[in-house]
Amino acid sequence: KKKLEQTDPPRVGLSKLFPSGIYPEGELQPYKDDNTYRITSEEARYKEKLANEDPETTYNDIRRAAEVHRQVRERARKFIRPGLTMTEIAEFIEDGTRALVEENGFESGVGFPTGLSLNHCAAHYTPKLVILSQGDVLKVDFGVHVNGRILDSAFTLTFDHTYDKLVEAVKAATDTGVREAGIDVRLGELAGAIQETMESYEVEIGSQVLPVKPIENLSGHSINKYQIHGGKSVMLVKNSDQTKMEEGDYFAIETFGSTGRGRIVESGECSHYARRVDAPHVPLRLTSAKTLLKSINKNFGTLPFCRRYLDRAGESKYLLALNHLVSQGIVQDYPPLCDQRGSMTAQFEHTILLRPTVKEVISRGDDY
Ligand SMILES: O=S(=O)(c1cccs1)N(Cc1ccc(F)cc1)Cc1ncn[nH]1
Ligand SMILES: [Mn+2]
Ligand SMILES: [Mn+2]
Q1: Theoretical Cys-Cys bridge with 334: which of 16, 126, 272, 368, CB 3.0 to 4.6 Å?
Q2: How many CB atoms lie within 10 A of CB 3?
Q3: What would the pLDDT profile of 146-189 be if each residue is shown by its tens digit?
Q4: 3-state secondary structure of 133
C-alpha cells in the first residue's frame, strides 16, 4: 500500500499522516549545567512523566502545530518567487496551515496573521498589492495553534546573494539565543549573548562594509495558552533585566538584524490586532464597536487577527469600531515595525519549551 504523503500545495490533514495521534519531538538540547536544578532529577523525571504520559498532553499539541509549520514552510520556500503578490503568498501559507492543522474553531487553526515583511520592514507587515522583486529580503513569520498552544516561527528568504551575510548573522544569533536559553537564565544576559553573535558579522555591499546591528527595540517573548505575548521579553541587546526563564515556559526566540539604524519605528497602516487578555470591561457607547467586539470574541478570542480575517468572517465597514476598541484599550494594535528606508532587515525565530529535564526546540526543521 503506497504511503500517504503530503501534497504540494499542502492539503493533507496531519491526522491522516500520523494515525497514532503522536507527533514528532523537536530537537532536544541538554541544559548547559545540569546542577542548576531547584528540584532533584528524580522529581524532574516524575514531573516529565506527568506532563507527557499520554499523546493528548500539551507537549503533543504544540508538536502537532510544529509539524504543520515545517510541512507548510517546506513548500512555501519553493512556492515563493519574485513576481508573486504578497496576497498570493499569504493565502498559500494560510490555506496550507488551515488544511494541515485541520482548522476547527478554537481547537486548532492559524495562530496569528501571516507576516510578510519586506526589506526595511521587520515585522507585522503584510502589504496587499505589492509584488515580490528579485532584490527583496522577505521575512516570513506565521503561526499555528492547537488548543491554544501557539507555534511561532519565522525565516528570511532572499533571491540573490547580496545579503547572504545579513541572513547568516541573524540565523547564527537566533541559534545562540536558543542554545543559551535555559531554566534560571536571566533575560538580560541572554540578550547580551544574542547581541555578541549578531555584532560579529558585517555585510559588504559594493564598496561599503556595513555592520550588522541587532534591532534594539524588538524582542523575543514568552507564549501562553491563546496568548502570543506571555509578558516576558528577550531583548536583542545586553540589559539589566534580572527576570529568569522558568521551567515549563514556552519562548519564541526571535532575533532581527539590520543594516540600518538598528531601531524600528511604527509605520504605515496597521493590519495586526489582538483582543487583550486583560481587556477592561468598559461600557461601549458605539453600537458598531459592541457588535465588532462580539465578532472578535467569537472568531478569535485573544488570538491575533488582521483585517483580512475580519473580511473572511463576514465583517465590513469596521474600521471606526476597530479604532474605537483600540482607543478603549480592549484591542491591542500591532502596526508594521520598520527601520529606515533603504536598509535591510532579517529575522529567524524558533519556539522552544523549557521542559523539567531538557530544552526542546519544537520548531526545528532541516531547513533552519
Ligand atoms: O512584536 S510582538 O508584538 C512582541 C514581542 C515581544 C513582546 S510582544 N510579537 C507578538 C505578536 C504580535 C502580533 C501578532 F500578530 C503576532 C505576534 C512578536 C511577533 N510578531 C510575530 N511573531 N512574533
Ligand atoms: Mn513570529
Ligand atoms: Mn514571536
Answers
A1: 272
A2: 5
A3: 999 999 999 999 999 999 999 999 999 999 999 999 999 999 99
A4: coil
Q: Best mutation site among 229, 250, 265 for ligand 1, i.e. most ligand atoms within 8 A of its Cβ? A: 229
Rounded to two decimals, the ipTM of the complex is 0.98
CA 202 to centroid of ligand 2, rounded, Å: 24
pTM greater than 0.90 (yes/no): yes
C-alpha cell at 122: 521587520
Please choose, from the candidates 109, 74, 72, the residue with its C-alpha nearest in 3D space to the C-alpha of residue 93.
72
**Residues having CB within 6 Å of any atom of ligand 1:** 112-113, 115, 123, 141, 152, 219, 221, 228-229, 233, 252, 254, 272, 274, 304, 334
Q: Residue whose CA is closest, atom 3 of ligand 1?
A: 334
Quote the ligand 1 centre to 228 CA distance (angstroms): 7
- Evaluate the CA torsion angle 134, 142, 176, 22 in order and state its sign: negative
Amino acid of residue 322: L
C-alpha cell at 177: 539565543
**What's the CA-to-centroid distance between 229 and ligand 3, angstroms?**
8
DSSP element (H, E) containing 68: helix 58-79
Q: How far apart are CA 251 and CA 245, in angstroms?
A: 9
Q: What is the pLDDT of residues 80-107, one digit of tens each?
A: 999 999 999 999 999 999 999 999 999 9
Looking at the chain, the whole-number percentage of residues with pLDDT higher than 90 is 89
Report pLDDT for 114. Answer: 98
Helix (H) or strand (E) holding 164: helix 164-180
Match 473580511 to its residue by C-alpha cell.
311
Residues annotated as catalytic (active site), given as ranges: 141, 152, 221, 229, 254, 349
